[in-house]
Amino acid sequence: MPSPSAASLLDVVRGPGSPPVLRLETRADPAHWAARHRDALRATVAEHGALLVRGLGIGDVGQAEAVFRAVSNGLMGEERETFAPRRTHSAGVYSSSKWPQNQQMCMHHELSYTLEFPGLMLFACLTAPTTGGATGVADAPTVLDALPRKLVKRFERQGWLLTRNYNDEIGASVAEAFGTEDRDAVEGYCRANAIDFRWQPDGSLRTRQRRSAVVRHPVTGRRCWFNQVAFLNEWTIEPEVREYLVDVYGADGLPFNTFYGNGDPIDAEVVRQLNAVYEAHTAREPWQAGDLLVVDNIRTAHSRDPFEGPREILVAMADQVRLSDCSPTIEVTHP
């Protein structure tokens, strides 16, 4: 990204509990404006970790895609290992994840369980919800500093483990997550991406992958709490939903769960503590139609509040980064 000094070109305001906001009064074409101010936008994100641009006037998928491409260094291709289905609007432009609108989508870093993930997340609001539905952001270095040192040291030493069970009833299916139902292709992807896999007698797929919970930002070198330990853990699932899933699929059959890197379970109090630290450092601003939100995916976690009414947020993942370029604390082992 450009030097943060270029951010002085933008008049950014940050109120208590809100992300940095740039308020525009322009009728210019959104993509033209974004291209003209690209360096300043990226420098502002590099300085603050996120930026909400209000008044840009993004009105449809085509305008959103043009803005995303103007700001980014390139949109990532078809998503792999998704945990919830998305609708594809155009090449590299998706709907937000299909997640129950009455449930909180907790803080996470997009695709932080993969070996290649977006360095930049871009969101455009076409329809703002009646109430709620904000995309919150939290600074990962600040979150890391606020966590108990003993807990951080354990995750640095052991990493974190993600387990997934793919079926056709809940969460992403094999075809949605891997782009194919062909077993050979799925197995090839898993081997290439350090994912242990087991086909179950009923034909479903169970996977395990161990990743670093703390990484260094590839540009600034700052240490970041970068994972989905809390979000994808069983204790973050709504209690009645978790009880139902355990009853139907068994404790080992949950669609996703997280553990310490050595396989030990993470107790509910640790998950509560992680989510409490996130909430204490969350900045949020209600969406307005036409808004653009740009997030440094490594520096900044994001979430989604429950909401009422229609909500249409377009999403793009951009500026692909390799885990190996982020000084992982554990070695990735291939099955």
Automatic annotation (TrEMBL):
Keywords: Antibiotic biosynthesis, Dioxygenase, Iron, Oxidoreductase. It holds the Pfam family TauD. GO terms for molecular function: dioxygenase activity. Its cofactor is Fe(2+). Gene3D superfamilies: Clavaminate synthase-like (3.60.130.10). InterPro entries: AlphaKG_dependent_hydroxylases (IPR050411), TauD-like_sf (IPR042098), TauD/TfdA-like (IPR003819). Residues 29-317 form the TauD/TfdA-like domain. It comes from the Bacteria. SUPFAM superfamilies: Clavaminate synthase-like. One of its GO terms (biological process) is antibiotic biosynthetic process. PANTHER family: GAMMA-BUTYROBETAINE HYDROXYLASE-RELATED, TAUD_TFDA-LIKE DOMAIN-CONTAINING PROTEIN. This is TauD/TfdA family dioxygenase.
